[in-house]
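Hi F.,

I've been meaning to write this up properly since the lab meeting, where we talked about keeping a consistent format for the predictions we share between groups. The idea is simple: the sequence comes first, exactly as it goes in, then the structure tokens exactly as they come out, then a line or two of notes. No screenshots and no reformatting. I'm using this chain as the first example so we have something concrete to point to.
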Amino acid sequence: MKTLVPLGAAAFLVMAMWASPSAAAQQPGADPALTQAEDPALVKLLPAAMAKSRVFTVAVALGSPPDDFRNEKGEVVGWEIDILRAACEALGIAFEPRPTTFDTLIPGLQAKRFDAAIGQMGVTVVREKVVDMIGTLTGNELFAALAENPIKVESLDDLCGITVATTRGSREMVFAEEHNPKCVAAGKKPINALAFADGNGAADALMSRRADLFWLGSTAVSYFVAQSKGRAKVVGHYTDTSYIGVAMPKGSDMATPLQAAIQHLITNGTYGKIVAKWGLADAAVKEAPLNPTNALK
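Output, unedited:
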């Protein structure tokens, strides 16, 4: 696994561009072991506009290791970055990540400022109504607390009156807001949900005791706990296992080519190398579905 950027590190926004996919080995953060040859059959799937521009812009919500974050060199890395970079190489197009925050991803896609977006985004029925999504991993949501905290989370009822840290624009914020009337009806205080720009900020809130819990997707929370060296622990989960994936504008003509490219990585073994590299083999998928019907409600 890559070294985790210190949780207190401030994220900064830098757009990285490369002239051609053949320069992948020189791209900041690129893993030469994952480099793909251009596949003629995949290239034929490209729509005319992409075949001409050969540049695929991807909004990336940073701050949630091991999904998408900056390493100790300031390079944008993570399992989602590795998958999309390799998929773009197979398609013969340049991968152009544009770092941003989670709450800007779907609005940016709807405004067609990006070709795709990643950021440990859960595939849900609500999201599928406004964007197209390709499932690339499975996961759920976890709660982490400091090691000495005896708290256990078996349902959202256990969050009433508790301060939880998560990210802006996340499903966790929606779930907390929807559950607060139930807390009040039960004579309890509402959930105090603190929204941060990224996962590092939310994790910092837990470690600095500004929050009782860190609540986010399983990949981010599991990685954080592993890196905490015993200072934090998982104390519960919420939602059934579902897909995490890549989002694109609704009706995007790049949905089918990108899905085919990711499936190509699964077939040739590159996908397996990527999930193993980031300690996510148990959450691997055997195929990359477009708008899966078993998305969360």
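Notes:
The domain at 140-241 is CATH 3.40.190.10 (D-Maltodextrin-Binding Protein; domain 2).
DSSP finds ten helices and ten strands in the chain.

If this format works for you, I'll send the rest the same way.

G.
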